[in-house]
Design a protein that fits this description.
By secondary structure, the protein is an alpha/beta fold. Helices cover 39% and strands 20% of the residues. The chain is built from 15 helices and 14 strands. An 8-stranded mixed sheet has the order 5-4-3-2-1-6-8-7, with helices on both faces. A hairpin with a 4-residue loop joins strand 2 and strand 3. Helix 1 packs across helix 3, helix 10 crosses helix 11 and helix 11 crosses helix 13. It is globular and about 55 Å long. It starts with a strand and ends with a helix.
Amino acid sequence: MKILVLNCGSSSLKYQLINMENEGLMAKGVAERIGIDGSFLKHESENNGKVKIEEEMKDHKDAIRIVLDALVDKEHGAIASMEEISAVGHRVVHGGEKFSGSVVINQDVINALEECSELAPLHNPPNLMGIYACQEILPGLPMVGVFDTAFHQTMPEDSYIYALPYEYYENHKIRRYGFHGTSHKYVAMKAAALLGKSVEDLKLVTCHLGNGASVAAVDGGKSVDTSMGFTPLEGLAMGTRCGDIDPAITTFLMEKEGMDYKELNNVMNKKSGVLGVSGVSSDFRDIEEAAEKGNNRAKLALDLYHKRVKKYIGAYAAEMGGLDAVVFTAGLGENSPESRAAICDGLEFLGIKVDESKNNVRGKETIFTTEDSTTQGILIPTNEELMIARETLSLV
């Protein structure tokens, strides 16, 4: 069975075609600048290399049609016809409380996703665009929705309720949802396999550290807490997001700077984080380079970031009453030995001791702690697309 995995953003579309017989990647790519002048597709197939296709994409339907044409193209395609595609798995960011697992998409599901759009106005509408487009272009083909929030639906009530008047939860569903759930679930399962244990017997802290970042407490294979909340703004400092701040700062800044709520929301989501502190970039590679050259604000941004992650690891170890391993994944977690070492520095009391030689690795599954560590530090490259494909396969 061959499954097409789609991840639709507001002006982009990432995809992978996966052969589930061996979980082999047959093709992947990204369509960019959808609805904007200069749109293009970067496509790569297993046997026919890479190609860049510059073509107008007025909307996601155009983009998906161009992706499908690329997949069956005689020169750079991966399949002979679209009939080889058995199902489509869609990444959906927010499932609210309606979905605690992946679901086969039907009209009732679509209606529920439309209701959830107000909880994720930047993410769910593009996800829905991809679903609508597939309904038109690939009518009758089974589709599955896989939710970023679903893995965290196992959080107990005292982890997800905010200390606000309870009627706000009852009336508006204001609560902590958490995100990156597909990634947290994938790396937790892989870490258990690497340790040769059942995930049900482990207490793990999983750290998805990219431009967007979150930490999850995974006890017995279930998420019991996570750093992101009602939106992906809560928690860690990130590339451009502020993460945890005193809520009173918002009204203070609105008064002092004369901002309305839209301007302030833009500041907190797009101008803060390590970009705001460093003044250099939201890309950690640029910040690390600037810090090495003596830029004190760049160094401060890195120190602040590392400390926030460390605080969550310690908090979740206390919450779970123990810790077997800390798992690092995503762009920074996979590719920065320096950040992994800085975050783990001072966690020796939890049994984590970094082996410098083992830690000197990027993007490769490995245990990077010393032989006498009682808590393991593990690097696991995430693969959300494969996880979505597996969920899709299980349902169709």
